[in-house]
Amino acid sequence: MKTISDLGDLRGKRVLVRSDLNVPLDGSTITDDGRIRASAPTIKALADAGARVLVCAHLGRPKGAPEARYSLAPVAKRLGEVLGTDVVFADDTVGDDAKAKAAALEDGQVLLLENLRFNAGETAKTDEERAGFAGELASLADVFVSDGFGVVHRKQASVYDIARLLPHATGQLVSTEVDVLRRLTKDPERPYAVVLGGAKVSDKLGVIGNLLGTADRLLIGGGMVFTFLAAQGHEVGKSLLEADQIDTVKGYIERAEKEGVEIVLPVDVVAADAFSADADHEVVAADAIPADRMGLDIGPESSRLFAEKLADCRTVFWNGPMGAFEMQPYAAGTKAVAQALVDVTSKGALTVVGGGDSAAAVRQLGFADDDFGHISTGGGASLEYLEGKALPGLTVLEEGDA
């Protein structure tokens, strides 16, 4: 895949950058600007090179029409603060305002277009409709730079179809993400541990299956652990359980044993009588969860066990919190895993926090991005890559220039 340096002199050229600026909002207040900060280096590099930079991105899940609550206007303001320059904002994506402001851009200026998903063509199922919208986007620019790693697993107009219409390259963020993922899958330094959490085991079955041939240890926490415990014949009370996946999980446990992959499960959990920070809760053995309680975090012994299993690792990938970290009584397990990653990072290990809830958790719990080797901006894309799937937004970049 080509990088920006392969595009030659960009001074005076209109460069359309697909960024991932899908940040969480509380009203119009950005609660985590991590994706904006991660996107800024590519945008700044292009502006410093004299390009006329048009940034496009999505926010939330509007249904193909404008919705005020999903406007990128607050993002334009914060992006300007991060870049240290004014960012022009267009009130539409490919309409009159976008066209006028794109035409008026001067060398080194940055324009952010309104939410891509205000246009039905962005996520359309038919190739024709997506290509039509991609053509409108392409008419605004001379060159395309793909830098939205969080969407490269989507076959969408601004990710896939537009790369067929313009000379293209990967931005710094996508290049870094792909390099890290290759290090996780191509001869990783060992011991190699993968920590998986989050709510549903079904979301990560493909990843687990693929990693059984790569990782040395799988540490399982979060809501998904209760399907593993049930597969071992244990009572899980009112905990989250995917009963239809029990047989599949049993198969993975048996396969792991045959292939010498260690699966590490919690030995204790924090069990509560309701999904609430104020609920009555207690630490119980993982194989003895009361029938009237639900597990909402791994327990203190499990936290110590997980930290021990990570202490000698040279490569660690983590996706998914260990519990309901948003509520203080159930945040300790996630914090313990994060600290364990910080500790092995300081010893030179490659540690990768796999985006999404994991990234939000470490920031909410007071950790800095540079405490870890890499915090991914795309949890879904990372998981699909580790599952061995082709990512359309990367595949199209490998096909050559338009």
From TrEMBL:
<dbReference type="InterPro" id="IPR001576">
    <property type="entry name" value="Phosphoglycerate_kinase"/>
</dbReference>
<feature type="binding site">
    <location>
        <begin position="20"/>
        <end position="22"/>
    </location>
    <ligand>
        <name>substrate</name>
    </ligand>
</feature>
<keyword id="KW-0418">Kinase</keyword>
<feature type="binding site">
    <location>
        <position position="35"/>
    </location>
    <ligand>
        <name>substrate</name>
    </ligand>
</feature>
<comment type="pathway">
    <text>Carbohydrate degradation; glycolysis; pyruvate from D-glyceraldehyde 3-phosphate: step 2/5.</text>
</comment>
<dbReference type="InterPro" id="IPR015824">
    <property type="entry name" value="Phosphoglycerate_kinase_N"/>
</dbReference>
<feature type="binding site">
    <location>
        <position position="154"/>
    </location>
    <ligand>
        <name>substrate</name>
    </ligand>
</feature>
<keyword id="KW-0547">Nucleotide-binding</keyword>
<feature type="binding site">
    <location>
        <begin position="58"/>
        <end position="61"/>
    </location>
    <ligand>
        <name>substrate</name>
    </ligand>
</feature>
<feature type="binding site">
    <location>
        <position position="326"/>
    </location>
    <ligand>
        <name>ATP</name>
    </ligand>
</feature>
<dbReference type="InterPro" id="IPR036043">
    <property type="entry name" value="Phosphoglycerate_kinase_sf"/>
</dbReference>
<dbReference type="GO" id="GO:0016301">
    <property type="term" value="F:kinase activity"/>
</dbReference>
<keyword id="KW-0963">Cytoplasm</keyword>
<dbReference type="InterPro" id="IPR015911">
    <property type="entry name" value="Phosphoglycerate_kinase_CS"/>
</dbReference>
<keyword id="KW-0067">ATP-binding</keyword>
<feature type="binding site">
    <location>
        <begin position="355"/>
        <end position="358"/>
    </location>
    <ligand>
        <name>ATP</name>
    </ligand>
</feature>
<feature type="binding site">
    <location>
        <position position="117"/>
    </location>
    <ligand>
        <name>substrate</name>
    </ligand>
</feature>
<comment type="subunit">
    <text>Monomer.</text>
</comment>
<feature type="binding site">
    <location>
        <position position="295"/>
    </location>
    <ligand>
        <name>ATP</name>
    </ligand>
</feature>
<comment type="similarity">
    <text>Belongs to the phosphoglycerate kinase family.</text>
</comment>
<feature type="binding site">
    <location>
        <position position="204"/>
    </location>
    <ligand>
        <name>ATP</name>
    </ligand>
</feature>
<protein>
    <recommendedName>
        <fullName>Phosphoglycerate kinase</fullName>
        <ecNumber>2.7.2.3</ecNumber>
    </recommendedName>
</protein>
<dbReference type="Pfam" id="PF00162">
    <property type="entry name" value="PGK"/>
</dbReference>
<keyword id="KW-0808">Transferase</keyword>
<keyword id="KW-0324">Glycolysis</keyword>
